[in-house]
Specification:
The protein is of the alpha+beta class. The protein has a single domain, classed as Gyrase A, domain 2. It has 3 helices and 4 strands. Strands 1-2-4-3 form a 4-stranded antiparallel β-sheet. This is PilN domain-containing protein.
Length: 101
């Protein structure tokens, strides 16, 4: 993870700080029944995906986003839950931009 943060800072220094904070905060929100495998940032849109042990794990994890600076106030209305051919329970979340008061 540290090497990825360093490389991000070299490739896009102006974005590196905000993306580095997002990665740190996501790492701090780890959950035992959930494995985050994909992170995609396109402008203000964030897509997260991975594997979970149960369907209840993902909403509980998302509820903790309010504890962070980068994810607090973001809505994640896109939520897909499916099983792959191996029987793994996979999730994908898609965000909307932060709401401004």
């Amino acid at each position: 993870m540290e090497l990825m943060l360093q490389q991000l800072g070299v490739l896009a220094p102006e974005r590196g700080q905000s993306h580095a904070l997002l990665l740190r905060e996501l790492a701090g929100l780890s959950a035992s029944g959930l494995a985050l495998e994909r992170i995609r940032v396109e402008g203000v849109r964030i897509t997260l995906g991975g594997e979970t042990r149960s369907s209840e794990e993902v909403p509980a994890w998302v509820a903790r986003f309010g504890e962070t600076r980068t994810l607090a106030g973001k809505a994640f209305p896109e939520f897909l839950l499916s099983r792959d051919p191996k029987g793994r329970l996979l999730f994908q979340l898609g965000s909307l931009p932060k709401e401004t008061p």
